Amino acid sequence: MSQSSEARTAALDVAGDRAGLGADGPEQLFAVVDAIDATPALRRNLSDPGTEPEARKGLAHAVFDGKVSPAVVDIVAEAAGLRWSSGSGFAAALERQGVRAELKLADASGGLDSVEDELFRFARLVEGQPELRNSLADNAVPLAVRQELVADLLQGKVGAPTVRLAQRAVAARERTFGHTIDSYVTLAAAQRNRTVATVRVARPLDQGQIDRLTVALTRQAGRAVGVQVVVDPAVIGGARVELGDQVIEGTVAGKLENARRTLSDG
After folding, report:
1. Do 183 and 261 belong to one domain?
2. 15 near 75, Cβ under 8 Å?
């Protein structure tokens, strides 16, 4: 993410935090995003850098006042007043605010940790089943049908916020369903000022091992870390840790691969 993009995202986060969307906020914001996605001319006009920011804000109010809550309209107008590189980037930024609002509601009800864990587990389930992964990515199938598939798979097994967010992720704003879900998990961790560490091991870890690993990674990262464990038969001994952009390779397989590359380079 470029510096200017980070600044826009941060500014919109502040506006979203200030708005206080309420229980219906995420649903209404997602409805606005769907309307913008379905109307290319509206999306283009709301994000056109050649139009004055105040005019774009005015358009947001003209279109959405009275249709959704004033707080939701204010966020849309705030986003319209910022400079975006594309209409799709503008829509994605609003989608992100809807996700953050859903996560804030989960946090307020004490369910954020469950949502974070459920999303992560479902993403790994999809990742491990190519047929399901391809079905969710098949643009020849209507989005609503693919979202219904997700709801059928999750209903009764996870909380309602997880179902709603997993359905939103089918649109794959971040290239793939898995990447999009992972971005939600990162936002959930950020809600608690944490970062996420994905730990891949050959066998399950007990709680004592997870606790010790969490302490060590928190010390290394310099901030709180939430550990998500993935049992992966391809891991031969040790563990592979993905902490943000950093990869800590402690597996036998990884060391063998590094040795092979060294020999090949020589």
Report:
1. no
2. yes
Task: Give CA–CA dist 170/147, Å, rounded.
Answer: 6
On whether both 182 and 119 belong to a single domain, the answer is yes
Taking phi first (over 0 means left), then psi (-120 to 50 degrees means alpha), and beta for anything else, what does residue 52 get? beta
Pairing outcome for strands 246-249 and 224-231: unpaired
Q: Which of 192, 216, 243 is at the close of a domain?
A: 192
The verdict on 71 and 118 lying in the same domain is no
More confident residue, 194 or 101: 101
Q: Is 193 left (phi over 0), alpha (psi -120 to 50) or beta?
A: left
Phi, then psi, of 172 in degrees rounded to 5: 55, 60
Q: Which residues of 208-227 are buried (b: 16+ CB within 10 A; e: fewer)?
A: eeeeebbeebbeeeeeebbb
The 10 Å Cβ neighbour count of residue 166 is 26
Record the pTM: 0.81
Distance CA 125, CA 132 (A): 9
Are residues 96 and 82 located together in one domain of the fold? yes
Cα–Cα dist 222/206, whole Å: 24
Residue with tokens 């040790």: 238
Q: Which domain holds residue 170?
A: 110-192
Query: Is the pLDDT score of 219 beyond 50?
Result: yes
pLDDT tens-digit series, residues 92-101 = 999 999 999 9
Any long-range contacts for 57-60 (C-beta under 8 Å, 24+ apart)? 57/81
Phi, psi (deg, nearest 5) at residue 176 = -135, 165
Rounded Cα distance, 246 and 249, in Å = 10
